[in-house]
Amino acid sequence: MTTESSELIDLHCHLLPDLDDGPADLMEAIGLATSMAEQGVDTVVCTPHFNRRITRDTKTALAYLDRRDHRLAELQQAVRAHNLDLQLVPGLEIELTSGILELIDRLGPQRFCLGSSNLILIEVTRVYPETLSQLNTQLYELQALGLQPVLAHVERSLSGLDHAFDTLADWAEQGRVLLQVNADSVLELDRRIDLPFMSGYQRRKFLRDLLAQDLVSFVASDAHSLDLRPSRLSGAFRLIWSRWGLETARRLCGQNQLQVLNP
Predict the structure, then answer these.
(1) Distant-in-sequence, close-in-space partners of 104: CB < 8 Å, separation ≥ 6
(2) I need a surface site. Which of 2, 44, 188, 230 has the fewest CB within 10 A?
(3) What is the pLDDT of residue 1?
(4) What is the distance between the alpha carbons of residues 149 and 151, in angstroms, rounded to a whole number?
(5) Which residues of the chain have pLDDT under 50?
(6) What confidence score (pLDDT) does residue 6 get?
(7) How far apart, in whole angstroms, are the C-alpha atoms of residue 17 and residue 20?
(8) Residue 257 and residue 41: Cα distance in Å, rounded?
(9) pTM
(10) Alpha helices, DSSP H, located in the chain
(11) How far apart are CA 197 and CA 44, in angstroms?
């Protein structure tokens, strides 16, 4: 079982060097990029963290966006020099902090999107009982700016929150939000025995239910480095193929991504 003839597109990856907790330098980034190309990944949306450390003022945010663009150009040049068949696309993983919506509006929403799409990748980092209510309001405000929110690794961020599954299902079915899950989490489903008392069972059940009800739009690597968090997108593709079929694997690991990045 291979990914041959299937286009893998990674919509969430910390590939750019010296920006966040991804690769420390250009050569480390090339190592990660090489492993992705060898897996059959065709396109990577580079999504460094854009969090409260960066959004404290407009000057800091603009400087970070400029660094992001510069790192992307450097890495693109290095990818070509190493003859890697890999297209790089700009993006961000955005923490919804106080004032972030005003900042996005002020600086121009397109700088915060995934490529030339209107998709914006959102990270939910602090999960409390009121999280879903606050997030609901923020999603409406993002849509008012013409943006389509994508919630990053929801199986990690929201699986422990009461009523999160039903709320996410409602939002996804209404088209208000798209859901992204991580390849590593998908591969954790490959257990011969999985019982409620086992570590991580709640997260795995949450993810299984999302996949079974066809609520997931994207599987992505969320890769950070070869050593600590490598890309495992091709492995997730194969597992989804074995459990839910080839068409589902193609849709979640490439076709949906291609549709939004190249409408």
Answers:
(1) 112, 120, 142, 145, 147
(2) 2
(3) 43
(4) 6
(5) 1, 5
(6) 66
(7) 8
(8) 12
(9) 0.95
(10) 26-39, 58-81, 100-107, 131-144, 154-157, 164-174, 183-187, 201-212, 233-244, 246-250, 256-261
(11) 37
